[in-house]
Amino acid sequence: MKKFFKSAVALSLALVMVFAFAGCGNTESETETKLIMATNAEFTPFEFVAANGKGICGEFDGIDIAIANEIAKDLGQTLEVSNMDFNSIIPAVEAGKADIGIAGMTVTADRLENVDFSEPYWVAVQTIIVKGDNTDIINVETLKGKKVGVVTGYTGDLALSEVEGIELARYQKGIDAVQDLKNSKIDAAIIDSPTAASFIAKNPELKGVTDDSFFETEEYAVAIKKGNSELLGKINATIKRLKESGEISKIAEEVDNRLAQ
After folding, report:
1. Closest Cα to residue 40, out of 101, 99, 91, 94?
2. How far from 125 is each of 90, 148, 188, 192, CA to CA, in Å?
3. Which tens digit of pLDDT belongs to each residue from 19-53?
4. Which residue from 85, 93, 124, 167 has the highest number of Cβ atoms inside 10 Å of its Cβ?
């Protein structure tokens, strides 16, 4: 999914940002340690702000929030969510401002230079969202000569930046790109498949187009500070438990049901 820009600018932004926090999970002891999760709550259904303000962890809801809460429980800790700009997540983990980074984040070679990653917990691919009556756009090649919305720093942004002839319109939020698509300000939008499915479900006048020959499948995993093998082992144990028990699929279904209400 989202690709990370390695730069001093991103690190500087991470150090000066005002973060939004919410706590949840175990609350039996006031001295209980916290597991701080860095995320960007703009990636439905993985992390988002609940419409009613009552999410899995404070106001925050989503598949990633639920997984992080399970990790915190297994560690005997209380989960605290730190909501920030996506490009600030890895710098926050590197600097020790967050224990883990979970934000539908794809494991890449560039990111592995800065953080370690858990075993993957989800597999996704990019989806091209277009209006339902659009018959011109059937793959990436047919995006040439079109104006295409992408989210800055995400996989769609970096992948299409390498294709000549496509005019990119960059957004901070996928929902803004979808809104401009509905208003005919752009011709298409590129979003990770689970989030694209959520947008399309809420906007039946839109449809999704895939191009498996261009977009590779992506594995989402948990980012942690390099060298913290003890924490990595415990996180992997939780992910293994959730995958083998089918709990992740159950979590995803429950989140979808809440979004549909």
Report:
1. 101
2. 22, 17, 16, 6
3. 444 567 554 444 469 999 999 998 888 999 998 88
4. 93
192: enclosing H helix or E strand = strand 188-192
Can you list the pairs that 159-163 forms with residues at least 24 positions away whose Cβ atoms lie under 8 Å?
159/126, 159/190, 159/214, 159/215, 160/190
According to DSSP, the β-strands at 167-171 and 147-151 are parallel
Q: How far is CA 90 from CA 45, 104, 169, 195, in A?
A: 21, 13, 25, 21
What are the distances in angstroms from CA 167 to CA 59, 144, 162, 164, 195?
A: 36, 8, 11, 9, 22
Q: What interhelical angle do 63-75 and 247-260 show, nearest 10? A: 130
Count the residues in the chain: 261
Task: Give the count of beta carbons closer than 10 Å to the beta carbon of residue 31.
Answer: 5
For residue 226, give the nearest of 101, 84, 122 by alpha carbon: 101
What's the token pair of residue 112?
């592995």
Judge whether 188 and 140 are in contact, CB under 8 Å. Answer: no
Tokens in use for 111? 């990111």
* Contact between residue 254 and residue 199 where contact means Cβ atoms under 8 Å apart: no
Gap between the Cα atoms of 232 and 116, Å rounded: 8
